[in-house]
Amino acid sequence: MQFWKRNAIRQHQHGQMAEASRSARRLRVLLVDEDSTARAVIARRLSHMGYDVALSENGFSALSMLVARPVDIILIDMGMTLLSGIATMRKIRAAGLVNTACFVMIGGRNDAVSAIEALEAGADDHIVKPYDFDVLDARLRHLCARAEQMGTLSRHNAELDARIARRALELGETRDALAEMQADRARLVSSIQALHDEIARLNGTRN
């Protein structure tokens, strides 16, 4: 009985953590799949799990949608015929329509070849049908959290580079000012020395 209670407590805590994760900002997903039934099922399940889901029936439609609708995750079926999943991902990347969005390719059951192809082409993850939606949810949120961390790191690096550039500029300006002050001092010393020489020459003439 005690063992059951401990398990119940752990399950309850796990459920609370999952619920808290899902109550955070709703992640935006674009699902690209030619199968209308698959689109409807996946969209309904992901929506219930706290995602905002947009649907696209092919890669060309996805390109148009991304112009006006930024997303966090792009789910692409690799079995599309009009424009393959890999080609769709490459066109989206080439168009510069995503910043830190994660690409997740959907392959067939035990399709190791497509998994290797997807990852080598630059996908962030690869999943196979049929899949457990709880596992999918965990993987998608992990990918987005990692992407946000990388984005934060990139911004910090950019800010650091900007500060270094400003300091280098300020240092250069300081060096220029110091060089100008040294030149002025040299001119002043030269003028004083010339004045001393002229006074000495006049005193010599009088004597």
What report would you give on this structure?
Helices cover 66% and strands 12% of the residues. It has helices at residues 2-22, 36-48, 59-68, 85-94, 112-120, 133-206; strands spanning 28-32, 52-56, 73-77, 102-107, 125-128. The termini are far apart.
Short description:
By secondary structure, the chain is an alpha/beta fold.
The span between the termini is 122 Å
Would you tell me the structural class of the helices and strands? alpha/beta
Strand content: 5-15%
Query: What summary fits the major beta sheet?
Result: 5 strands, parallel
User: Based on CA inertia axes, which overall geometry fits?
Assistant: rod-shaped
Please supply descriptive tags for the structure shown above:
alpha/beta, 207 residues, 66% helix, rod-shaped
Reconstruct the topology from this structure:
Layout: H1 2-22, E1 28-32, H2 36-48, E2 52-56, H3 59-68, E3 73-77, H4 85-94, E4 102-107, H5 112-120, E5 125-128, H6 133-206
Helix pairs in contact: 3-4
